[in-house]
Every structure is written in C-alpha cells, then in structure tokens.
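Duplicate of #3305? Posting structure anyway:
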C-alpha cells in the first residue's frame, strides 16, 4: 500500500492535537487514574503496584486513548485540509458536524435507552464538545498544512 494516498499533515499539528484531544478525553477518565494513583501511593513499593491489575488496566486505557487521539487528530486535520477550511467559522462547522456524527447518537442512547444519570451525560457532552469542536479550532489555529518549500 502506497503512502501517497494519505495527505501530509504538519507533525507539530498532530502532536498538539493529540495532546489536546488526549487531555480532553482524560477528563472523564480522571477518577480511574485518581484511584489508581492513591493505591500506588499506599503500596509499599512502586514495583509492587506495577504488578497489579489496576496498573495494567490504567496503562491500557491511557495507551489506547493516546493512540486514538493521534488517529482522530490526523483525521480531523485531513478533513480541515480537504475542505479548505481557513476560518474559525469553518472550523466551527466542521467540528459541529463531527460532534453530530460522533456524539449525538451515543448521548441519545445514554439518556433514553441506558437511562444514564444526567451528570454523566453532561460531563460526556462537555468532554465531547472539547474533543470535536475544540480540536477543530485548535488545529485550524495552529495550521495543518506542511511547509512544502
């Protein structure tokens, strides 16, 4: 498979977007990492905690979130490039479209089918707004086109 079909994106945009997306995604995972940190602090030695299932679980959540954030950042960067988006208004439209595609169905299922608590739904909504619309703004502000000089 040839790499020519994948559009070029500025590496610094991917790094910045990954950090932003990963950070906003960890807002909901903070309780998991907080409890893991408390258990690690109470453990006799760091080596003892690393061998526990909680540490492995926290590490796998963190790692998969980081990889997912990088892939999402690349995809949003390519969409911004392909549509020729240069303004914040365009980034708002693209981010809103991504939000509608990715989040709205899951929120409706969470509210009506799974009967999730309202505070969970609101927290998920805020995190996803940051992760879609916020990511579009950040990438548009930073710029995604590589210098082809």
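Output from current build:
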């Amino acid at each position: 498979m040839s790499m020519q079909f994948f559009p070029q994106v500025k590496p610094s945009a991917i790094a910045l977007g990954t950090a932003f997306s990963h950070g906003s995604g960890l807002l909901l995972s903070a309780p998991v990492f907080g409890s893991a940190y408390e258990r690690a602090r109470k453990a006799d030695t760091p080596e003892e905690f690393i061998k526990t299932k909680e540490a492995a679980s926290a590490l796998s959540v963190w790692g998969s979130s980081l990889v997912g954030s990088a892939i999402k950042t690349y995809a949003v960067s390519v969409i911004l490039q392909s549509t020729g988006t240069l303004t914040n208004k365009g980034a708002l439209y693209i981010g809103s479209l991504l939000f509608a595609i990715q989040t709205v169905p899951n929120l409706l299922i969470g509210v009506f089918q799974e009967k999730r608590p309202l505070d969970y739904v609101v927290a998920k909504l805020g995190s996803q707004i940051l992760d879609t619309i916020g990511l579009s703004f950040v990438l548009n502000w930073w710029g995604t086109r590589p210098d082809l000089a």
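Confirmed duplicate; merging threads. Residues 27 and 127 are 7 Å apart (CA to CA). The longest helix spans residues 11-42.
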